[in-house]
Amino acid sequence: MSPSAVDVDVKGVTDTTALVAPDPTTINALAAWRIKGAVPTGTAALSNSDMFKSPACFTKPKAKRWDHIISNEAKARKPSTLKGAAEYLKRPGMISLGGGLPSSENFPFEEISMKIPSPPGFSEEETRVSGRTVTAHKHDIREGRSLFDLEVALNYGQATGFAQLLRFVTEHTEIVHTPPYADWQCCLTVGSTYSWDSALRVLCERGDYILTEEYSFASALETAQPLGIRAAAVGMDEQGLRADALDEVLTNWDSKARGARKPHLLYTVPSGQNPTGATQSAHRRAEVYKVCQKHDVYIVEDEPYYFLQMQPYKAGVPPPSSRDEFLKILLPSFLKLDVDGRVLRLDSFSKVLAPGSRVSWIVASEQLVERFTRHFECSVQNASGVAQIALFKLLDEEWGHAGYLDWLIHLRLSYTRRRDDMLHACEQYLPKEVTSWVAPTAGMFHWIEVAWRKHPGFAKGLSHAEIEESIFKASIDRGSLLCQGSWFRADTNIPEDKMFFRATYAAAPANKIQEAIKRFSDALRAEFAL
Amino acid sequence: MSPSAVDVDVKGVTDTTALVAPDPTTINALAAWRIKGAVPTGTAALSNSDMFKSPACFTKPKAKRWDHIISNEAKARKPSTLKGAAEYLKRPGMISLGGGLPSSENFPFEEISMKIPSPPGFSEEETRVSGRTVTAHKHDIREGRSLFDLEVALNYGQATGFAQLLRFVTEHTEIVHTPPYADWQCCLTVGSTYSWDSALRVLCERGDYILTEEYSFASALETAQPLGIRAAAVGMDEQGLRADALDEVLTNWDSKARGARKPHLLYTVPSGQNPTGATQSAHRRAEVYKVCQKHDVYIVEDEPYYFLQMQPYKAGVPPPSSRDEFLKILLPSFLKLDVDGRVLRLDSFSKVLAPGSRVSWIVASEQLVERFTRHFECSVQNASGVAQIALFKLLDEEWGHAGYLDWLIHLRLSYTRRRDDMLHACEQYLPKEVTSWVAPTAGMFHWIEVAWRKHPGFAKGLSHAEIEESIFKASIDRGSLLCQGSWFRADTNIPEDKMFFRATYAAAPANKIQEAIKRFSDALRAEFAL
């Protein structure tokens, strides 16, 4: 049934000398370890990242244990009895009347094809000309045409994800982040919002506080609040979360006044933070990690915008000259710094391929990924097999790691252009007397500060909230929608000193961005009587 | 952008007189109300089932309110601030720099095609000959080719599901179940296991008991247990859950002895129950509903096997002569009996199309579906758009309701053949001295009772568990895997009087089923020294 290891085709291998001297941090070395292991291709076959990690991983020290922060709910989860019985299926000749899996003859999809871009022709126009159509059939595995097919993808799968895609995601994680401990694992999920919901349930109890940026992703806060989990706001600067502010909150934590134990979990968006667009420098990340070590805080890094790190905001900077250079100029993730195994990375295809895939993954130490897997088994089970096989065909069979990195470079340049369009419009239109901003270096958000105390209403006693709402409405009336900064406040008990509006450059085309900023500018001029 | 109402093509309309005299319970009437409403086709457009229900629905009384059973977690959920801002997007000419939705130019799928069966040629062989290939392009909506496309499906969507598929599911629900109250709603989810996990979080508190069959779906129990929710076992007979036993448990509930309030939630699988294969008759369902009314118990009906209701187990029964006859011979769901709006129906494509779609839906009163929607917004967000558009192309654009019912009839006959193969094998091989069973009328499970007290070990003092394990192992040693009945016990504190093994006829081909039953039979003969 399962093609042998040597059938595995390794895309993107441009330097075969790497096969001799494997370096796990480069894609050229991939062939060396990939070729050693076959992919389990049976229906609902078990797999884990260890099958796909390079040998170098296993020489590193193991992660710390996190028993003291695992929730009562997560502690109580046991492996499924029925899934345990699957062990017996490995015996040769065993016939199973056990699991209630439908027969693939009753899946009404014989083939699924997709037309996808051929690197380097990534644009819609180029794809129309040079795009390739790839097809998944129902029985490609049996017929030796592929490692993955509809018979498997359309049936039930394991919570960790289908081995075929888990392999790609594991390799990608090693290439980009090279975690500095041995027993890290990936597990596919159904989107980072769900990963975060699960993280709260696996790592927190009702009544806990979590630490997060003073302006934080609204949905992340709204996910925590109904679970009885409150946010302790940590001060920010133009690099996002401040390590000194984090230390201060933790050092001065007053359990009695707060009515809660000292927080043990930091939620942070290190790159292109939502809503501020701020990006933590490499130095800042190391500082934050050190503070988390000092106070034994576990880190959840939510990194949808990691590959939306952009070119510097100045003319004439050439794009990365190679994939290796591209990888080198990326900021280190917390996972890359994670000597303790104290990081849960929420990774996602939503901002780099398509949100509608609803396929994402987490990376953490084996102990925690095992608890998350038990959690997923009794909730979402696994990400859609239709989406998983589409991503496998695209990423593994067609593009390979090299093609995917090329795509990410293409995306970097595309977002750089969008960001530049936004900043040019702001420079052209926004009244400098009352607005200021820092050019974003990652993500999809531009965070515009408004000097609200210069608003005529301020002298008349209008509140921060009233002035913010007035500006928002004035912009709406002129046909331009930006988000109010106050919508993103982690702790609404702390009075707001500054005022911000969030504008995204991800969606609208350049001329619309320009027009929307012009309208917002008109609204500001009217409001501030400029 | 959005095609007008009259562009909507109604598949499966064979009787145009129905357009004059609409009867909401038949598919022929569908055109009459479908044609009245356009489908919202914008990116992440809001929709709900009311847009797609027949006018007759709204003349019925409204559901009861369920404030008294909604959990603290669910009560605390608020509508998203950011999603609230989307209201402004309806204003003509508004440019949004609000939501962080990626631009579709960066989705690397230009087209997705699928080869699917053409009714009535549903088999794999027929599909190879007469199957049709249908294609979703990126901009079909803009270009007037379809109501749904990849630009929309691959972006973020609403938690309720994309309107295009929500419409089909709503119509299907009305055709099959015709809920007897006005304000029912459907909401797509990512599989019934997740719907159940959500139901526990929306409707229960830690420490609660739920009511369920004494042998119950193991994963459903494993989902409840880590949330601190225990199962109160209700006695069963060959029709599954006993109404009198349910009344007894509720009437004699001793809150002090149990350490929990009287249960307010029943979890039941009415058709082809897992693991017993039992199916509640129409009369039984009405009795159970009445007991639930008496004790104000809310019902969760988990119905993955509803359309695996089979032909009677006797030779020469002709298949349903028409779609109308097929609909008439289906047992009434609890939803169909639900005058109070006290039923949450968990519906799913897993057993009738493909589990790998990870697309399912719930039906309940508006009040509860609204709470579930808030829950999904902060967890899974929405089912995969890739799977949703594949199902839309198949079900709505190609098959229509008529074709889908034809498929379900095809499946009914296919499962009837499989069930018959299983029963023939059992009749041929199993030792009658120690085995007995009831022919299943729905689902994928055959529940075999073993007269364990006749086992030689019984006289020697071996326990129920030891004898069950011994038989299980003896069968494994002969290469046949069946599930132990005890794996499915709702309350392990109650001593087991009987002994069962569960065998599925869903997956293995006929000759393998025969061989596996033969091996199990050999194991029994050896164990019982027959």
UniProtKB/TrEMBL annotation, chains A, B:
<dbReference type="GO" id="GO:0006571">
    <property type="term" value="P:tyrosine biosynthetic process"/>
</dbReference>
<dbReference type="GO" id="GO:0005737">
    <property type="term" value="C:cytoplasm"/>
</dbReference>
<dbReference type="GO" id="GO:0047536">
    <property type="term" value="F:2-aminoadipate transaminase activity"/>
</dbReference>
<dbReference type="InterPro" id="IPR015421">
    <property type="entry name" value="PyrdxlP-dep_Trfase_major"/>
</dbReference>
<keyword id="KW-0663">Pyridoxal phosphate</keyword>
<keyword id="KW-0808">Transferase</keyword>
<dbReference type="InterPro" id="IPR050859">
    <property type="entry name" value="Class-I_PLP-dep_aminotransf"/>
</dbReference>
<keyword id="KW-0032">Aminotransferase</keyword>
<feature type="domain" description="Aminotransferase class I/classII large">
    <location>
        <begin position="185"/>
        <end position="520"/>
    </location>
</feature>
<comment type="similarity">
    <text>Belongs to the class-I pyridoxal-phosphate-dependent aminotransferase family.</text>
</comment>
<protein>
    <recommendedName>
        <fullName>aromatic-amino-acid transaminase</fullName>
        <ecNumber>2.6.1.57</ecNumber>
    </recommendedName>
</protein>
<dbReference type="InterPro" id="IPR004839">
    <property type="entry name" value="Aminotransferase_I/II_large"/>
</dbReference>
<dbReference type="GO" id="GO:0008793">
    <property type="term" value="F:aromatic-amino-acid transaminase activity"/>
</dbReference>
<keyword id="KW-0963">Cytoplasm</keyword>
<dbReference type="Pfam" id="PF00155">
    <property type="entry name" value="Aminotran_1_2"/>
</dbReference>
<dbReference type="GO" id="GO:0019878">
    <property type="term" value="P:lysine biosynthetic process via aminoadipic acid"/>
</dbReference>
<dbReference type="GO" id="GO:0030170">
    <property type="term" value="F:pyridoxal phosphate binding"/>
</dbReference>
<dbReference type="GO" id="GO:0009074">
    <property type="term" value="P:aromatic amino acid family catabolic process"/>
</dbReference>
<dbReference type="InterPro" id="IPR015424">
    <property type="entry name" value="PyrdxlP-dep_Trfase"/>
</dbReference>
